[in-house]
Amino acid sequence: MARLIFLGPPGSGKGTQAAQLAQDEQISHISTGELLRKAVADKTDLGVKAKYYMDKGELVPDQLVLDMVRERLHKLDVQSGWILDGFPRNVAQAESLENLLKEVAQVSDSVISLEVPDDLLVDRLLARGRKDDNEETIRRRLEVYREQTAPLIDFYRARGQLKSIDGAQPISSVTAVLKQVICS
Ligand code: B4P
Questions:
Q1: Helix 62-73 vs helix 32-41: angle between axes, to the nearest 10 degrees?
Q2: Domains and CATH numbers, the chain
Q3: In angstroms, what is the span from residue 15 Cα to ligand 1's centroid?
């Protein structure tokens, strides 16, 4: 059973790799981005609030995201393992996650950091063309990543949990390396 956290800038392949690995390993894929996009599409209270931040490339406020993750981690299907994709995204969220995992009596095994140069990230996101994949929003999302999310690399390295992977290779090559790394 695996319990993994995927870290990486927008476009690094977190969602892509997490979906593949979760399917292959039959564990739950918990993507905060996807959960938020569903809330936006369903026009729930959370979705209406989240949309404002997502459209600008900003992080959705911590408490909203944390409540959503707490609800998800209390569901039964996560008992066989999970990948947290896109959460935590700042140090406050990482600290909250530590408390939440105590609450559900679970621990994370590893934190996978996907590393990709900026110019490749921008090309990939522009090619995908999601609503928040326009040049101005992408630039802001990358800034937010550097300012708020990248410090988590040191946070998890200091805890001995960090495993870095070169995410600039073709999708199937990254998946193959990822599988070797989580088994090692
Ligand atoms: P996310 O949904 O997490 O979006 P993302 O960071 O852009 O990455 P994603 O995982 O979707 O894409 P991937 O790199 O796999 O977040 C969206 C927004 O939600 C955030 O901006 C924020 O507002 C909000 N949010 C989410 N979580 C939050 C949190 N915890 N706290 C606060 N706010 C939060 O793929 C990108 C593209 O690259 C794809 O088209 C893919 O096919 C391609 N690609 C991937 N790997 C490739 C490879 N190896 N080679 C070539 N192309 C590749």
A1: 100
A2: 2-183 (3.40.50.300)
A3: 6
